[in-house]
Amino acid sequence: MNLKTVAAVGTAFGILGVGSAFATFARIESMGKNTTYIMDDVSIFDNAANINLYSNYLIGEFGPYTDNDLKAGGNVDPQHPSFGGIFSIAIGDDNNPDPRISIGGLFGRVNAELMQYLPNKVVGDNGEVTNVPETVTNFDGFLGGTLSDGNAWGLHVYIATQDGGDKGEDGNYQVSKNSFASVVQADGGMNFQFTNYFDLEFSLALARIQYGPEHHNFFDDGNFSWLIKSRAFFTLDAINGELVPALNLKFIDAPGLDEKHAQVGVGVNVALDRGFFWMGLDFIYNKRKAHDWFYEKGVWTYDSRNEDNKIWDDRTDVGGMISFGIERNIWWDWFVIRVGGQKSILYTKCNVNDKNADKYTKDHYGICKDDGNFFTTNPLADGTSKDHVGFGFGINIEEKLKIDVTVAEDLLFRNPFQGEGRLFSRISATYSF
């Protein structure tokens, strides 16, 4: 999307409730589950250069609410709330907003792309089992700008850590000397405008994933990960939309884990009468190797005592994914409904090292229980952003305040006389000025 025209396009779309320039995690979760084939403010986490598209706005949300087990006396509030904003200063003349500088920050976001590689517990060299604590710093920082020709650049850092403490049963943080978890990412990106009909963006990230008492030193063991993302937008007047090829590569290196991921796809997004539609098709290849990672009774444990004698299991997934999203104004210009979904079909091959096979049982095993081949798919209906279908709505108040809501998937099937239940699984809001 052309940076010089994004404000005008965003306003035109916003009046129709379509492709809003300022949208949220809740919008994406209820309209296809990913941002690969559309330009949305959540795209700033894939390419920091996109902060120049969404300058001068505030964003916040309560976080996801997917816990259906409403236990008496427990905290059933949504978890991981976040808030922040992006601000921009034009340093060009009155007739041209470029060049300009943008700066932003967000507190509380959980980087799900990297946090998935943290175990629940770690066994140290002395055999002591320690919980992997929940990170508390969780900060995104952004710095970006545009050049006089409208091309954009951006830098981003993500810092999430906890060291020497953990939340106790009393709800307060207490000393836990061996507790340690750290996820750090630094990345940069560019957004090039070659013509009015062709934009290209590219980002490169270096990440560090650490956990457990044996991995405190930032430069220990060479556990650095690389993430590469790129996509292009080809404007097609014939469909009143865009053709979007995309590439996503990950090379993950964490204690006990090694993963290589490649995802290549193509999608389209189309502006409709009072609405917006997108669809994408992806090829997926993922190979995960792990040593001394064990699953038992709902808990993943990494045993760091065998790092000099690594016995690897591996799990390879090859297949595809189709996803779509649609939103449309109904009744009023300020009210929009959304629905979307994704479906992956992967052929999985599991290889268990013979030395590990003798140690595994039906209740204690690694990333694979046994050798074999089978089909897998994404979660069917667990209420998370990874499952099949989402539904929601949005409210747009004078192109300033926008509220997006993901509706709980069981809402329409619940008996209202059987007690409490959540109505929504996510609520996000932005305010632009």
Described by the principal axes of the CA atoms, the overall outline is globular
What is the count of β-strands?
Answer: 21
What is the helix content? under 10%
| Cα Rg | 23 Å
Largest sheet: 16 strands, antiparallel, barrel
Strand order of the largest sheet: 1-2-3-6-7-8-9-10-11-12-13-16-17-19-20-21
* Helix count, DSSP H or I runs of 4 or more residues: 4
Q: Quote the beta fraction.
A: over 45%
Average pLDDT confidence is 85
Unreliable runs, pLDDT <50, ≥5 residues? 2-21, 68-73
Structure class: mainly beta
Ends distance: 21 Å
Helix and strand sequence:
HHEEEHEEEEEEEEEEEEEEHEEEE
Question: How does this structure look, described?
Answer:
The protein has 433 residues and is mainly beta. Helix content is 6%, strand content 51%. The chain contains four helices and 21 strands. Strands 1-2-3-6-7-8-9-10-11-12-13-16-17-19-20-21 form a 16-stranded antiparallel barrel. It has a four-stranded mixed β-sheet with strand order 5-4-15-14, with no helix packed on it. A hairpin with a 2-residue loop joins strand 14 and strand 15. The chain is globular.
